[in-house]
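To illustrate the input format used throughout this study, we show a single complete record. The first block contains the structure-token representation of the backbone; no residue identities are included at this stage. The design step must infer an amino acid for every position from geometry alone.
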């Protein structure tokens, strides 16, 4: 069986020794970029590799031009995924300790390059430990394999695409940040507050229940059907602060059975690099 959206801790536990499965620990904290890697070395799911958001899952940041976490090049990702032992026959499982918000970045990157056998661990590291499942300290490595990319450009929206969408009522922009950041009431990260005009607010954390697990697919479907209205997912563009947590909404959308939409990877932090681009507050 291939897992394409979410996977449970119980199912993963049955595959810890499966050489055709690759586990990737994506723990990361914006306010302490070294914490996730330190935590990984202190304890991780047996066999898991570590992926650092800004070193492994982000391209070159160009001040004043890109957002905070631009996409790596295809060539960079091919080299990285190959080194991690990922090929077309491998099931990848990504996890973190923040409800899937970081793991969804790796999930999306693999799908963008045509690898569909990738899932996010529902509940992540906190649930794994709470259930008393095994863990290991230190670092781990895998034998490399050859990752062959099959890029899917239809999953990406450029800043030009977003500008065009502002003039086309058949498109919908969806902002994954908190309501306070969307309204411009509180902006702890980026130098300009607000949102892209016409965007609607859909905080990614609302995909989770009080336990930190993804809400049932039927609930997610109802949520996104309300957000999208008559707009088909193919004409929806999702963004956040830097193109990371918006992938959480894209994961939830697919898990809900509604298909795939586009990610604006530059997101708000790229949008505001040009003062001529319009913004809204409140």
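Output of the design step:
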């Amino acid at each position: 069986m291939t897992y394409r959206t979410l996977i449970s801790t119980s199912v993963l536990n049955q595959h810890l020794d499966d050489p055709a499965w690759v586990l990737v620990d994506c723990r990361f904290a914006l306010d302490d970029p070294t914490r996730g890697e330190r935590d990984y070395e202190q304890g991780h799911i047996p066999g898991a590799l570590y992926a650092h958001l800004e070193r492994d899952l982000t391209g070159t940041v160009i001040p004043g031009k890109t957002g905070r976490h631009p996409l790596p090049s295809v060539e960079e990702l091919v080299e990285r995924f190959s080194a991690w032992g990922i090929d077309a026959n491998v099931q990848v499982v990504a996890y973190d300790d923040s409800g899937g918000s970081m793991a969804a970045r790796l999930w999306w990157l693999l799908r963008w390059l045509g690898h569909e056998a990738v899932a996010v661990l529902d509940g992540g590291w906190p649930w794994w430990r709470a259930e008393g499942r095994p863990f290991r300290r230190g670092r781990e490595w895998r034998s490399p394999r050859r990752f062959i990319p099959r890029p899917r450009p239809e999953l990406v929206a450029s800043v030009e695409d977003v500008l065009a969408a502002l003039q086309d009522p058949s498109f919908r922009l969806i902002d994954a940040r908190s309501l306070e950041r969307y309204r411009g009431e509180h902006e702890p990260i980026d130098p300009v507050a607000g949102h892209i005009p016409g965007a609607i607010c859909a905080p990614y954390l609302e995909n989770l229940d009080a336990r930190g697990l993804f809400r049932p697919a039927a609930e997610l479907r109802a949520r996104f059907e309300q957000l999208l209205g008559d707009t088909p997912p193919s004409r929806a563009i999702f963004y956040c602060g830097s193109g990371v947590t918006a992938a959480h909404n894209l994961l939830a959308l697919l898990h809900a059975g509604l298909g795939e939409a586009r990610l604006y990877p530059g997101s708000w932090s790229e949008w505001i690099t040009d003062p001529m681009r319009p913004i809204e507050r409140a």
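Structural context for interpreting the output: The mean pLDDT is 97. The chain has two domains: 6-130, 153-271.
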